[in-house]
Write a structure and sequence with these properties.
Layout lengths: L1 E6 L12 E3 L9 E6 L17 E7 L7 H5 L4 E4 L6 H4 L9 E4 L9 H7 L2 E3 L6 H16 L2 H9 L2 H5 L20 E5 L3 H11 L4 E4 L16 H7 L2 E4 L13 H4 L7 E4 L8 H9 L5 E4 L13 H8 L4 E3 L8 H20 L1 E3 L6
Parallel strand pairs: 3-4, 3-5, 5-6, 6-7, 8-9, 8-10, 10-11, 11-12, 12-13
Antiparallel strand pairs: 1-4, 2-14
Length: 361
């Protein structure tokens, strides 16, 4: 269901943080802008403030499928989106000749064909660090639940194992020993942006030892305080994946990497599907090469028991495996941050400046 709103411009004070860079509009933007929001289901839009002399028409869609994108953006000057794929065919000058800006209400922009945008001069701005606290807290919840084997214990209790065997204590053992305490953990963080840094602070407050991974294949000693990737796999008892999905991180962790981990290691992925091999993870859990996993993202989303080996294995219920449905970001603070940043991105783009750290194309 689409909702359209036509509005005039508003005089507002231009922001001038040090990170702003010039964004020359060539050709100049039209005075009246057609703004299309494709996915307000995830985060409702705030009342947009558009600087004078510009006016705008806003068309909002609660949900948009990949098949609907081309039709819905064909007359847009500005598109606001979250996760729906926007591919080269929809971005072509034939389909969307007026398109100048895609404002992504998410940190990841892998759903947008950035090469096609760059070729056409379409600016793509993301929303970094809006969900850092929420994601870090979700990682903590996945860690505690997995390290304490909450799901296996709950399952045993529901099967009356406590009553019939007299104890479910050993169900809390992911390996043949009691679980580690926080102060005995070494947390290896793969991806040290806003989320990774917040995770380090949160886990560090629990007296965990924190190590930050360098890039895979980077030479030893060339990463400053970073620990070589292979060493992180071997040393860490908890591995947290929170890096972007780019060509260098696709299939970053598979069977060979699981083979290097400690037997009581836990892996948590809140980054993107495609970084951790799904079948390789399930195999590692079944063969007890690692002790547990907490997964929030999948190769194919929405994920199901048919599309994801991880979801299917979790449904079978015999592993120390916790799955959530790409919900790590969900929080009231995240919504407020996304609403603030999308307003900044749209307004500053129109004024001719953008935040350098948000530019993805």
């Amino acid at each position: 269901m689409a909702h359209s709103l036509t509005n005039g411009g508003v005089n507002t004070a231009a922001a001038s943080p040090a990170s702003l860079v010039s964004a020359v509009h060539d050709p100049p933007l039209p005075q009246h802008l057609n703004i299309v929001a494709l996915e307000t289901f995830f985060t409702p839009l705030p009342p947009l403030i558009i600087p004078k002399p510009h006016t705008y028409t806003l068309t909002e869609y609660e949900r948009t499928s990949a098949a609907q994108v081309a039709e819905r953006i064909k007359d847009a000057d500005i598109v606001i989106t979250t996760v729906v794929p926007i591919r080269a065919s929809a971005l072509s000058a034939t389909n969307a000749p007026k398109l100048r800006l895609i404002a992504v209400m998410a940190s990841g922009t892998d759903s947008v064909d950035l090469a096609a945008c760059t070729e056409r001069g379409i600016r793509v701005l993301n929303s970094p660090n809006c969900n850092s606290v929420a994601v870090a807290e979700h990682v903590l919840s996945l860690y505690l639940a997995t390290r304490r084997s909450l799901v296996p214990v709950m399952r045993a209790l529901g099967e009356d194992e406590w009553a019939t065997r007299g104890s479910v204590m050993t169900r809390a053992y992911a390996v043949d020993a009691p679980p580690r305490s926080c102060r005995d953990e070494t947390v290896g963080i793969i991806g040290y942006g806003g989320v990774g840094q917040t995770i380090a602070k949160l886990f560090g407050a629990l007296d965990m030892n924190i190590i930050v991974s360098g890039r895979r294949g980077a030479p030893s000693g060339g990463n400053g305080d970073r620990v070589p990737f292979e060493e992180v796999l071997q040393r860490a008892s908890v591995i947290v994946v929170c890096c972007p999905l780019v060509p260098e991180t696709r299939n970053l962790i598979g069977a060979a990497e699981f083979a290097q981990m400690q037997p009581d290691a836990i892996i948590i992925n809140v980054a993107r599907g495609g970084i951790v091999g799904e079948q390789a993870l399930v195999d590692a859990l079944r063969q007890r090469r690692i002790a547990g996993a907490g997964i929030d993202v999948y190769d194919h989303e929405p994920a199901s028991t048919k599309s994801s080996p991880i979801v299917a294995a979790a449904a079978e219920g015999d592993l120390n495996l916790i799955t959530t449905g790409h919900t790590a970001w969900v929080a009231a603070s995240t919504r407020a941050n996304y609403q603030r940043v999308v307003q900044e991105n749209v307004e500053r783009f129109i004024r001719g400046t953008v935040d350098a750290d948000r530019v993805k194309a």
